[in-house]
Amino acid sequence: MRKKLAEVVxxxxxxxxxxxxxxxxxxxxxxEDRKFGWFWECPQGDTCKYRHAxxxxxxxxxxxxxxxxxxxxxxxxxxxxxxxALPTTGGIPVTAETFFxxxxxxxxxxxxxxxxxxxxxxxxxxxxRLRKTGREILQEGESSFxxxxxxxxDLDIVSYLKQKKA
Length: 166
Description:
The protein is mainly alpha-helical. It contains 8 helices and no strands. It is elongated. The relative contact order is 0.05.
C-alpha cells in the first residue's frame, strides 16, 4: 500500500520536464478547500508546468484557524482610545440645544451673504456690467405673463421679451 501511495504521489508531484520549482496555484487552492485527493486533477492538465507538492516540512494552515483568531483589540476600543487622546480644552460639548444654536447662526450668516450677493448683482445689472439671466427675466415678470396666458397655453419667450423692450 505504501509503495502504491509513493508511486501516485511521485506521479502527481513531479512531472517530467518540469522547468520551474514553483507550486501550482490550483494545487494550493485544492488543499485549502480540502478537494485534493486520489482523483484530483489539475485544471491545466498535463500542460501544467508547476509542482503539485508542498516543500518538505511545510504545514498548511486551516481556514478555520485563520478566521477564528480573535482581534487583539476591537475597533471600538481603538476609537475610544483615540477619542480620549483628543484635547478637551476649549471645546463645547454638542447637545441638541447647542447644535440648534449653531445651526441657526450658520443659517443667518448664509442668508445675509445671499442678500449681499443679490444686492451686488442687482447693482451690476443696473450699471450694465452684467446681464439678467432668462430665469431672472421670467421671475421678474411672472405676474404679468401669468395673467396674459390662458390655461394650457404655451409661453412664447421671444415675443414676451420683445413686448418687454417696447
